[in-house]
Amino acid sequence: MGSPRTVLVSLFLICSQALADLSGDAQTLEKCMRELSSPETIAADLRKLERYSSWRQEELPCLMRCLAREKGWFDVEANKWMLKKVTEDLGADVYNYCRFELRRMGTDGCSFAYRGLRCLKQAEMHAGTSLSTLLQCSRQLNATNVELLQYSKLKSKEPIPCLFQCFADAMGFYDREGNWRLENWKQAFGPSGNEDESFGSDYSGCRLSGTQRQKAANKCSWMYQEYKCWERVNGNKLVEDNREQS
Question: GO MF annotations for this entry (predicted)?
Answer without folding.
Answer: odorant binding
